[in-house]
TrEMBL record:
UniProt-recorded name of the protein: Uncharacterized protein
Transmembrane region(s): 6-32
Region described as Disordered: spans on this chain: 290-366
Lineage, broadest ranks: Bacteria, Pseudomonadati, Pseudomonadota, Gammaproteobacteria, sulfur-oxidizing symbionts
Keyword Membrane carried by entry: yes
Length: 366
């Protein structure tokens, strides 16, 4: 009897156990895989059966609307196409479940047999096809008529915006080319510079014309004031007429009423006094203007011109005061002292003889 080493027996027993376990695991995995494949095939078959009526209806509608097949040819063609589709599905399922390599190699033949019903379709006559095309044309026309006004407006707006974009892009490209040639030192740089200079000059001329037009509009407002000044100069004597239209000092309404109470003989003297006071104020303004011009050239202390009271108010004050043979010059008119500070001294003397003695006139009236 042959003796075996115990370790060898132990090793062989363990190897047998491991092999058996491995084979059992492989068998279990293969069974589970086949079961999973069969479940997937079963679900596919159930989906095909549930969608059978829907696919038949779609096939029937396509054959009727697009190919114009009707009545018995339509039903027979629908059944043949349905059988061909089922045959193709069956071939794919069997090749997948059985892992059939030969069936997979011949899959092209099975596919051709499944599309044979499409090739064997009985196409109707040409007249029926023409009628069908006319119906499609009428349907397209109805769709075009049913387009909303909003869609038309949007299309017109889109076309307009596209045109504006094209014009803008052309303008920008021309401007970029001109700038590039002008600042890049190309052959047409001088010509482009001249063009740009002419454009700038034209814009400047337009701005100048607009400014001149605005100045003419402002000047048209001044003639009314000039006419009023001319009318006042015509009333005054030629020697004492006011030259500047800005100084049209008029006697207030109350002063005119007080002067209107005087006799006609005294009216000329009152008017002469008023004109003399206006002449003095004109001289003051002229001297002040000259002082302002001198101050702009050489800084000098500002000269304050004393306020001149209206001559009629002074006459009313004189009537309230006691009668005097000699009437002094008004204290507010110290023109000589203020004008001595300017370069050109222009002192205006007032005629004391022309002052009206209102007390004597009141006595005469009494």
């Amino acid at each position: 009897m042959i003796e075996v080493h115990p370790l060898l027996l132990l090793f062989m027993g363990e190897l047998l156990f491991v092999t058996t376990v491995g084979m059992v695991v492989m068998v279990v995995l293969s069974i589970l895989k086949k079961r999973r494949d069969r479940d997937a095939a079963r679900k596919l078959i159930e989906r095909i059966k549930s969608d059978e009526e829907r696919r038949k209806g779609e096939t029937r509608e396509i054959l009727n609307e697009k190919y114009g097949i009707t009545d018995e040819p339509l039903e027979s063609s629908t059944v043949m196409i349905d059988h061909a589709e089922k045959f193709l599905y069956q071939t794919i399922i069997n090749a997948y479940l059985n892992r059939d390599a030969d069936a997979f190699e011949n899959f092209a033949v099975d596919f051709e047999s499944s599309v044979a019903p499409y090739r064997d379709l009985a196409i109707p006559e040409a007249g029926v096809t023409v009628v069908h095309k006319e119906s499609q044309t009428a349907r397209v026309q109805e769709i075009e008529v049913d387009e909303s006004d909003e869609l038309k407006v949007l299309r017109e707006e889109n076309a307009r915006l596209s045109e504006e974009l094209r014009i803008t892009m052309d303008t920008m490209s021309r401007m970029l080319n001109e700038y590039a040639s002008m600042y890049g030192g190309g052959t047409g740089a001088d010509l482009d510079k001249e063009k740009m200079l002419k454009m700038f000059q034209a814009e400047a001329a337009q701005q100048e014309a607009a400014r001149s037009a605005a100045g003419m509009e402002e000047a048209s407002v001044e003639p009314e004031a000039v006419e009023v000044a001319i009318a006042e100069e015509e009333i005054a004597p030629p020697s004492e007429a006011v030259s500047e239209p800005e100084l049209d000092l008029l006697v207030e309404d109350e002063e005119i009423k007080e002067v209107g109470e005087l006799d006609e003989v005294d009216w000329d003297e009152v008017e002469q006094d008023i004109l003399e006071s206006q002449g003095e104020e004109v001289a003051e303004i002229e001297v002040t203007t000259e002082d302002a011009a001198v101050q702009e050239e050489e800084p000098a202390p500002a000269v304050e011109t004393p306020a001149v009271e209206p001559p009629v108010e002074e006459e009313v004050a004189a009537s309230e005061a006691p009668v005097s043979d000699e009437v002094d010059e008004p204290e507010g008119l110290e023109l000589g002292e203020d004008l001595e500070q300017s370069e050109e001294d222009e002192v205006i003397d007032l005629d004391e003889d022309e002052v009206i003695d209102l007390d004597e006139e009141e006595k005469q009236e009494k």
